[in-house]
Design the sequence.
């Protein structure tokens, strides 16, 4: 399988919503309006495509003044039938590369019971900052807030 990462298009929103509904049935999956708002805001969104089929997506929002940016991983998802093939890892690495270009730390929230995602994030330098009780609704599931410093900052601190 050859997967290409490229900017997410408005025409892909319907597929994103379909994937969200499958991935997050007990919580509030993102709506088409939420995806449109993110794309309209200029957030950095990538899709993973096999030919024209969207297999997954990831979105990174960047805020703050130049030289003092902060990034937030807003969403990442891969259709279940394509999980375990490295697509989520590739999407995450691509958005982290963008954050590193901007020298921005990255924050995210992840369900405390999502062991696969937690392992993926920790492997890529994220650490837990705290817990948000009942963050996901309507399930009431808790979330960890995690942070990853920009890659350049990690190398500078180590040196």
Sequence:
């Amino acid at each position: 399988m050859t997967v290409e990462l490229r900017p997410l298009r408005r025409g892909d929103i319907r597929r994103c919503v379909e994937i969200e509904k499958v991935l997050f049935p007990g919580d509030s999956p993102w709506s088409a309006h939420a995806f449109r708002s993110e794309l309209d805001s200029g957030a950095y969104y990538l899709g993973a495509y096999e030919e024209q089929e969207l297999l997954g997506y990831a979105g990174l929002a960047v805020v703050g003044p130049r030289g003092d940016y902060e990034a937030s991983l807003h969403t990442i998802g891969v259709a279940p039938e394509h999980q375990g093939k490295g697509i989520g890892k590739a999407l995450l690495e691509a958005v982290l590369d963008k954050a590193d270009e901007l020298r921005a730390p990255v924050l995210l929230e992840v369900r405390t019971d999502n062991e696969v995602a937690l392992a993926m994030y920790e492997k890529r330098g994220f650490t837990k900052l705290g817990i948000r009780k009942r963050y996901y609704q309507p399930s009431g599931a808790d979330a960890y807030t995690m942070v990853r410093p920009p890659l350049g900052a990690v190398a500078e601190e180590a040196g």
Notes: The chain has one domain: 4-158. Strands lie at 4-7, 44-50, 53-63, 70-78, 106-111, 127-132, 143-148. The two ends are 39 Å apart (CA to CA).
